[in-house]
Amino acid sequence: MGTHLHITAWVLGIILFFVAFALAGKNDKGAKIVHMIVRLLYLIIIATGVELYVRTGMKIPGFGGEYIGKMILGILVIGFMEMTLVRKKKGKSVTGVLIGFIIFAIVTILLGLRLPIGFHIF
Asked: Can you tell me where the transmembrane regions are?
């Protein structure tokens, strides 16, 4: 596993999240299947993130706290994604959790781009 698998899982997860968001609230089989696939991607994202941290993040001095912070932010992003889908499915307001998802996703991505592992844009 590696950085590319982690990023690919995130990209697929976010794309399928928006597909599931568009389908949520409709009581059809397709919406449930997409939501389950997104949940599977959550597990893959968490597993690859932990693997990246254990394999390389722990060995880079001076960045331990930032990697742990990024893991916490990543889990919060996944939590907001799931809360958004469940609230939409139940017909409740999703504005707050959707804004939370967007804010935490942006912060997590920016922190990830700042850290030594992965792509170096900054």
From this structure: 5-25, 33-53, 60-80, 93-113
Structure-block tokens of residue 50: 């932990």
Only one residue has tokens 């722990």, namely 58
Residue spans per domain, the chain: 3-114
Q: Estimate the share of the chain in helix, then strand, then coil, as percent rounded to the nearest 5.
A: 80, 0, 20
- Quote the Cα angle for 4-103-25, to 5°: 90
Q: Which of 74, 72, 79, 73 is nearest to 98 (CA)?
A: 79
What per-residue confidence (pLDDT) applies to 116? 73
How many CB atoms are closer than 10 A to CB 122?
7
Place 118 in a pLDDT band, splitting at 50, 70 and 90. low
Predicted confidence (pLDDT) at residue 59 exceeds the cutoff of 80: no
